[in-house]
C-alpha cells in the first residue's frame, strides 16, 4: 500500500508549533490553569464503589436497597466508634455525653435514624468500646465523605470527656481520598537531577519537567471534573499522576535528545524541530498508543472500578502525548540554540558522540557473544521471576493501613471490641417466594434463616433478622471470626451462599462478598484482557515496523519484564521480605517486635496484578519502540543487522537509561504514600522499569536481534502488500527538513 503521511503530518505539526511557539505555549498554560482552577472550585467526588453487575453480592445489595429502603443501603450507613480509655461507657457522665452527641448527630442533614451504643450488640464486652450507627436518607452518595465529617464533628460532647470518637465509614475524607503532594515533589526533584546529569544544562533539563507538569495539571483537571458525570475511583488521581509524570517526562526527553543531536549536526532550529517531531514524535505517538491500548483493554475486565480506573488513567497518557508533539516543539522553537544555555560547570562539555560510542561498544560486545548474553539474561530473569509463583492475592483491608489514619484506628478499636469479623460483616438477604409471603410465615423463615446462617462454620455471631415492610425480604447480618483480609472469610462467604431456606432465595453481600465476586470475575476475564492487550500491541508494532517477528518478540519481552515485577511483589509482600522497609505498618493484631515491623505478609488485591499488567505492558513497549526505531533506521541505511543493533543501542542507550531512571525515581517516590495500594504499585512499577531498561533492552533484545539476523525485518509479500506504510522513522522528512537551511538563509538575508 502507499505511504501514509504520518511522519509528514507530525513534521508539519511540529514545524507549525515551532513557528507559533508563543500561541501554543499560551494555549497550554491557559488550559492547565483553567482546568486546575475548575477542579478546585468544582471538584468532583471520588467513588469507592466495588459492586459488579450480575454478581450475587450486587443482587444482595439491590435487594437490600429496594426492599428495605435507603437507610439499609451500605452507602447510607455511617458508624462512629467510641472508646473510653478511662472507664466503661456506662458511667452516667459518659452516658449523658453520648446522648448529647446523638442529639447533635440528629441535627445533621439527611440523618434518618441514630442507633444508640447501648442497644443490644452496640457495646463491646469490655464496655469501653461502643458503636453509634447512623442511617441516612435522601443524601448524595458522592458527598458521603463530607457528611461523615459533619457526623464526626457532631460527636464533640463525648470528646470533651476524653472519649475517643472515630468515624468507621470507608469514605472518611482525610484517609480515603488519595491526594497528591509530597511524593510528586520528590519525584520531580529526582527527575530534574537525572535530566541535569543527562543534558548538563539547566534549560534543557527544565523543558521535560515543565511539559510534564502542564500535562499532569491538564489531565488531573479533566479527571476531577469527570467526577460529576461518572464514578471516579479514589485511586484515579494518584495513578494518573504516577503514569502521567513518568511518561510525560520520558516523551519530552526522547524528543529533546533527538533535537540536540540534530542541532549538533548543524541543522537550523526549525529544520531540527521538524525532523525531531517527524521521527521521534512518531515513536512517541506509537509508544503512547500502546499504553492507551493496554489501559483501554481493562474495559473487558468486568469490574467497573477497574474499567473506569483504566480509561481515566489513559487520559494522563493522552495529555502527555499531546504536550510532547505540540508544547515541546513550541518551546524548542522559542529557545533555539538557547536550549544549551546555563550549562552546569561541574558537568563539563561531554560530547554526545562519545556517549553514543560507549553504548555502541556495548552493542558490539553483545553482538560478538549473543548466545552467552542470551543465556545469562534468561538465567537472571528466571531468578527474578521465580518468586512470582508464591504471589498471594486477597482483600486488602484497613487493618494494613497507615497507623496515623482514622480508618486504621477505627479498625483497631472495632476488632479489639467486637472481634476481627466486625470490620467486614456479611449481609445475608433472602427474597421470599410469593406463595410463602401469602401464607405469612415470617416467624418461621426468620428463625430458620438465622439458624442456618449461625450454623455455617466460621460465623461468630448472627444478628436478629429483619423483615421488610412488604414481607417480601429478610435481612440478617452475620459476623465471621476472621478479618476481611483473611482467606478463610472468603470461604465463609461461599458456605453462606450454599445454605438453603425453603421458600427463600439467599444472597450474600457486604465488602468481603463483593471482593470475593470481584476476584472471581477478574480471574475469569484475565485471559481475555491479556490476550487483547498482547494482540493489539503486537498489531500496532506490526504496523509501525512491518515485521511480524519484531512484533511477536516485543510482546514476549514485555511479558518477561512483567514476570520480574510480580516476582518482586511476591518477595516484598507475599513472602514479607521487607514490607516494613517500604513504609507499611504491621497489620492489626501483630506484635511490636523489631522483626515484625520489618517482615510481615500483605495480601494483594485481585485487581492489582491485572492493572499492573496493563500499565507495565504499555510502559515497557515505550522503550521497545524507541530502541527498534533507532535499529530500523540504521538497518535501512546500510542493511548490516549486527551493525544496526550496535548503532541503535548507541543512539538510544543513554536516553533510555535516563528515561528509566526518571521513571524509577518517580515510582519509588510514590512508595512514600501511606496507602498500601500505592506502595504495591510503586514497587511493581519501579522494579519492572529497572529490569526492562537494563537486562531486557540492554542485553536480551540486542542478543535476540543479532541471532535472528535479517529475519528480524522479514515480512511475507502478501502481508507487506496489505499493511499501510506508516513510516514512523520519518525518512520522508529528510528532504523537507533539508530545505529549511535555505529558507532560513533567505529570511536572514532579507532581514
TrEMBL record:
- Tell me the keywords, alphabetical order: Cell membrane, Membrane, Transmembrane, Transmembrane helix
The question of whether Transmembrane helix is a record keyword is answered with: yes
Q: Which domain of life is it from?
A: Bacteria
Q: Which residues cross the membrane?
A: 185-205, 236-256, 277-303, 309-335, 371-391, 526-544, 556-577, 607-631, 651-674, 680-700
Q: Which residues form the SSD domain?
A: 205-334
Establish whether keyword Kinase is in the entry: no
Q: Name the membrane topology term.
A: Multi-pass membrane protein
Location (main, coarse): membrane
What PROSITE patterns does the database record attribute to this sequence? SSD
Record-level GO cellular component terms: plasma membrane
Protein location: Cell membrane
Q: What is this protein called?
A: SSD domain-containing protein
Q: Which organism is it from?
A: Streptosporangium minutum
Amino acid at each position: 500500500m502507499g505511504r501514509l503521511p504520518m511522519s509528514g503530518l507530525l513534521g508539519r505539526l511540529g514545524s507549525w508549533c515551532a513557528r507559533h511557539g508563543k500561541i501554543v505555549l499560551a494555549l497550554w498554560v491557559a488550559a492547565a490553569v483553567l482546568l486546575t482552577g475548575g477542579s478546585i472550585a468544582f471538584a468532583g467526588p471520588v467513588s469507592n464503589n466495588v459492586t459488579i453487575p450480575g454478581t450475587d453480592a450486587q443482587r444482595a445489595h439491590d435487594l437490600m436497597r429496594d426492599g428495605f429502603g435507603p437507610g439499609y443501603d451500605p452507602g447510607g450507613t455511617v458508624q462512629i466508634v467510641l472508646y473510653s480509655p478511662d472507664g466503661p461507657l456506662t458511667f452516667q457522665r459518659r452516658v449523658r455525653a453520648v446522648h448529647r452527641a446523638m442529639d447533635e448527630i440528629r441535627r445533621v442533614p439527611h440523618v434518618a435514624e441514630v442507633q444508640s451504643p447501648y442497644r443490644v450488640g452496640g457495646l463491646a464486652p469490655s464496655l469501653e468500646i461502643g458503636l453509634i450507627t447512623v442511617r441516612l436518607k435522601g443524601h448524595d452518595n458522592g458527598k458521603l465523605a463530607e457528611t461523615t465529617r459533619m457526623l464526626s464533628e457532631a460527636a464533640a460532647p463525648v470528646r470533651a470527656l476524653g472519649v475517643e470518637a472515630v468515624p468507621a465509614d470507608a469514605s472518611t475524607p482525610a484517609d480515603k481520598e488519595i491526594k497528591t503532594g509530597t511524593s510528586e515533589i520528590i519525584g520531580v526533584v529526582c527527575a530534574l537531577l537525572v535530566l541535569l546529569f543527562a543534558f548538563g544544562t539547566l534549560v534543557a533539563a527544565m523543558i521535560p519537567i515543565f511539559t510534564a507538569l502542564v500535562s499532569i495539571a491538564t489531565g488531573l483537571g479533566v479527571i476531577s471534573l469527570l467526577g460529576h458525570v461518572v464514578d471516579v475511583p479514589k485511586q484515579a488521581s494518584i495513578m494518573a499522576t504516577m503514569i502521567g509524570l513518568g511518561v510525560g517526562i520520558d516523551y519530552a526527553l526522547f524528543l529533546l535528545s533527538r533535537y540536540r543531536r540534530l542541532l549538533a549536526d548543524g541543522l537550523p532550529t526549525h529544520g531540527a524541530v521538524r525532523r525531531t517531531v517527524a521521527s521521534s514524535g512518531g515513536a512517541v505517538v506509537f509508544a503512547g498508543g500502546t499504553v492507551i491500548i493496554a489501559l483501554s483493554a481493562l474495559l473487558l475486565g468486568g469490574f467497573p472500578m477497574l474499567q473506569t480506573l483504566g480509561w481515566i488513567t489513559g487520559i494522563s497518557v493522552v495529555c502527555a502525548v499531546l504536550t510532547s508533539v505540540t508544547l515541546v516543539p513550541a518551546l524548542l522553537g522559542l529557545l533555539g540554540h538557547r536550549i544549551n544555555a546555563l550549562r552546569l560547570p561541574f558537568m563539563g562539555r561531554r560530547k554526545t558522540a562519545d556517549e553514543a560510542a560507549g553504548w555502541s561498544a556495548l552493542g558490539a560486545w553483545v553482538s560478538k557473544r549473543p548466545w552467552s548474553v542470551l543465556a545469562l539474561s534468561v538465567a537472571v530473569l528466571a531468578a527474578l521471576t521465580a518468586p512470582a509463583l508464591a504471589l498471594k492475592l486477597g482483600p486488602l483491608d484497613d487493618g494494613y493501613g497507615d497507623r496515623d489514619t482514622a480508618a486504621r484506628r477505627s479498625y483497631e478499636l472495632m476488632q479489639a471490641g467486637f472481634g476481627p469479623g466486625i470490620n467486614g460483616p456479611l449481609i445475608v438477604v433472602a427474597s421470599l417466594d410469593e406463595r410463602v409471603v401469602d401464607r405469612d410465615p415470617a416467624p418461621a423463615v426468620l428463625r430458620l434463616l438465622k439458624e442456618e446462617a449461625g450454623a455455617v462454620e466460621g460465623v461468630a455471631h448472627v444478628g436478629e433478622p429483619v423483615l421488610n415492610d412488604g414481607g417480601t425480604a429478610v435481612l440478617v447480618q452475620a459476623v465471621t471470626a476472621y478479618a476481611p483480609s483473611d482467606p478463610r472469610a472468603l470461604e465463609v462467604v461461599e458456605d453462606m451462599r450454599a445454605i438453603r431456606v425453603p421458600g427463600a432465595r439467599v444472597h450474600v453481600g457486604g465488602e468481603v462478598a463483593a471482593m470475593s465476586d470481584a476476584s472471581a470475575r477478574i480471574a475469569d476475564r484475565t485471559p481475555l484482557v491479556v490476550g487483547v492487550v498482547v494482540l493489539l500491541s503486537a498489531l500496532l508494532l506490526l504496523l509501525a515496523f512491518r515485521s511480524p517477528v519484531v512484533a511477536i518478540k516485543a510482546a514476549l519481552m514485555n511479558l518477561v519484564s512483567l514476570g520480574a515485577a510480580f516476582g518482586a511483589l511476591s518477595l516484598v509482600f507475599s513472602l514479607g521480605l521487607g514490607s516494613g522497609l517500604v513504609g507499611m505498618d504491621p497489620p492489626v493484631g501483630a506484635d511490636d517486635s523489631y522483626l515484625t515491623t520489618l517482615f510481615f505478609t500483605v495480601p494483594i488485591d485481585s485487581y492489582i496484578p491485572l492493572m499492573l499488567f496493563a500499565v507495565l505492558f504499555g510502559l515497557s513497549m515505550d522503550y521497545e519502540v524507541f530502541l527498534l526505531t533507532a535499529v530500523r533506521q540504521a538497518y535501512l541505511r546500510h542493511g548490516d543487522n549486527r551493525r544496526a543493533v550496535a548503532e541503535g543501542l548507541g543512539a538510544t542507550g543513554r536516553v533510555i537509561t535516563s528515561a528509566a531512571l526518571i521513571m524509577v525515581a518517580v515510582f519509588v517516590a510514590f512508595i512514600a504514600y501511606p496507602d498500601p495500594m500505592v506502595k504495591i504499585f510503586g514497587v511493581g512499577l519501579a522494579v519492572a522499569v529497572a529490569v526492562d531498561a537494563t537486562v531486557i533492552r540492554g542485553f536480551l533484545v540486542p542478543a535476540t536481534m543479532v541471532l535472528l539476523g535479517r529475519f528480524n525485518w522479514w515480512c511475507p509479500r502478501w502481508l507487506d502488500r496489505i499493511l499501510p506504510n506508516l513510516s514512523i522513522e520519518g525518512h520522508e522528512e529528510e528532504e523537507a527538513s533539508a530545505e529549511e537551511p535555505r529558507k532560513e538563509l533567505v529570511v536572514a538575508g532579507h532581514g
